[in-house]
Amino acid sequence: MSTPTPVGTVEVGPGPVTPEDLVAVARHGARVRLSDEALAAIDAGRAVVDELAAGETPAYGISTGFGALATRHIPADMRARLQRSLVRSHAAGSGPEVEREVTRGLMLLRLSTLATGHTGVRRGTAQLLADLLSHGITPVVREHGSLGCSGDLAPLSHCALALIGEGEVRDAAGTAMPAGDALAAAGLEPVELAAKEGLALINGTDGMLAMLVLALADLRMLLRTADVAAAMSVEGQLGTDRVFAAELQRLRPQPGQADSAANLVAILADSGVVASHRGPDCHRVQDAYSLRCSPQVHGAARDTVDHAGRIAGFELASVVDNPVVLFAEGDEPGRVESNGNFHGAPVAHVLDFLAISAADVAGISERRTDRFLDRHRSHGLPPFLAADPGVDSGLMIAQYTQAAVVSEMKRLAVPASVDSIPSSAMQEDHVSMGWGAARKLRRAVDGLGRVVAIEVMTAARALDLRAPLEPSPASGAVVRLLREAGVEGPGTDRHLSPEIETCVDLVASGAVLEAVTATIGELR
Questions:
Q1: How far is CA 520 from CA 29, 298, 523, in A?
Q2: Which is deepest, 111, 398, 415, 451, by most CB within 10 Å?
């Protein structure tokens, strides 16, 4: 029986890491510990490797070279050098430093695979990786270097390099220093890698998967926030809420669409603005697509997120290594087998799919924003929501910023996974480019937050201009949040960038969504 997991600590066992645990470790600095079951599995896997290493039959990754050099047999007295050389040579990343949360996420996922016992590492090696996470020691990983096949080799190699006391890391305070110094300061000793351990530490889809799980957490929040923004825009532009009725959504039973429409109905409930034009004299039942079809677009993105979440769940439950240790079963002895599970295609495909959905949601958000600023389409609002149009430009250029981000997101929506450049002397002749897909998705998620934030800011100003009509309680809560945070209402022109960044922070932190849910309850 394992001891209870302390508060703020994630226990890593032979089973899969949950998305919530990954976010806790990667983003919020939770500590980790290996369960007793994990340590037993690690010992069992190592016993298989030790037996094969002592035999005379060549075993890939244990007594041979790697990739296109796999035909060379490595004598026992050179195998520690083999593993050390592998890590050093593969730590070949270049470019800007990858975010701390991404590196911590990929470290946790590699530890999770080690904990299955199917990689054949020693328990001390796995424990040191856990200790780095718990002490907040984060290897410096570079932007470029992974092709998403044979795993995220270069990023994981930079992490493995720290385990042998080499390379550069950042301590818990974010200070860059040599890995050996950071280990010593934490009272940790570097390991000398034994047979197969170097390969086991670097051969996984952990980087792209970590970025997928983090993106899914962000997108689930942002898509609900996009529903908030859309509802505020429908309200501020005197649109109708009748098109979001449940009986209309049931005619097209797409689950994401139904949830998004239900959210819009809930957010718009008790709106004085909507009530002001809901009577028999209102004939506006054909709002522009960007208003009327918000649930259809947001819902399609939600369904894509759910699909990607299922793929992530399968991958979190996977053992990604090559070769992989198989335990003795029946008359079959324990053995090591080569496989292709390191290929990142399943993850790469959904990473690209999510970038497409994010760009589409951003595109419809920008179109809703633009309608506020055009006096011919805004139903009585001043041009650009300016105090004195002509002298003041109002939110004219905020929409430019939005459009620039949307345009970039469209470029980021071009799939990475359809590309492949052969490597390793044509041994690795088809690769997934999943790491690249993940990197561009992170930029797309950031862009979506910025676009939605500008829509929220614009809609809040428009609702103020509709006074004395009262917005819905949910919309009113968002307007108050912005005003209390220093995002001012209508008035003469002022420096807009700080207010935009404040709105971006309020959206990205979940504060806008929380303002709504605290008022009307949880959204779907």
A1: 32, 20, 8
A2: 451
Looking at the fold, whether 142 and 261 belong to one and the same domain comes out as no
Q: How many domains does the chain have?
A: 2
* Distance from chain centroid for Cα 5: 26
d(CA 74, CA 238): 75
| Sheet with 138-139: strands ordered across | 138-139, 168-170, 176-178
- 60: annotated active-site residue: yes
- Return d(Cα 5, Cα 220) in angstroms, integer: 28
What CATH number should be reported for the domain holding residue 36? 1.10.275.10
Domain enclosing residue 156, as ranges: 9-204
Tokens 């999510």 appear where? 354
> Measured between alpha carbons, how far is 52 from 336 in angstroms, rounded to an integer?
8
Which residue numbers in the chain have pLDDT < 70? 1-7, 61, 64-71, 279-285
One domain, residues 31 and 123: yes
The pLDDT of residue 426 is 78
- The reply to whether 68 and 92 lie within a common domain is yes
CA 316 to chain centre: 14
Instruction: Specify burial of residue 78 (Cβ count, 10 A radius: 0-12, 13-18, 19+).
Output: exposed
Query: 60, 80, 408, 502: which one is catalytic?
Result: 60
User: Which residues are within 8 A (CB) of 218 and not within 5 positions of it... i.e. 6 or more apart?
Assistant: 445, 449, 508
Do 132 and 270 lie in a common domain?
A: no
Which residue reads 């995220």 in tokens? 152
Confidence at residue 280, expressed as pLDDT on a 0 to 100 scale:
66
**Same structural domain for residues 351 and 495?**
yes
Specify which residues 168 forms β-bridges with: 178
Are 364 and 510 part of one and the same domain? yes
8 Å CB contact between 299 and 256: yes
In this structure, the answer to whether residues 247 and 375 fall within a common structural domain is yes
Give pLDDT, residue 434: 94
**Beta carbons of 306 and 510 less than 8 angstroms apart:** no
Residues 397, 263 share a domain: yes
Asked if residue 388 belongs to a domain, the reply is: yes
Is residue 493 a part of any domain in this protein? Answer: yes
Amino acid 1: pLDDT:
37
| Structure tokens, 472 | 């819905």
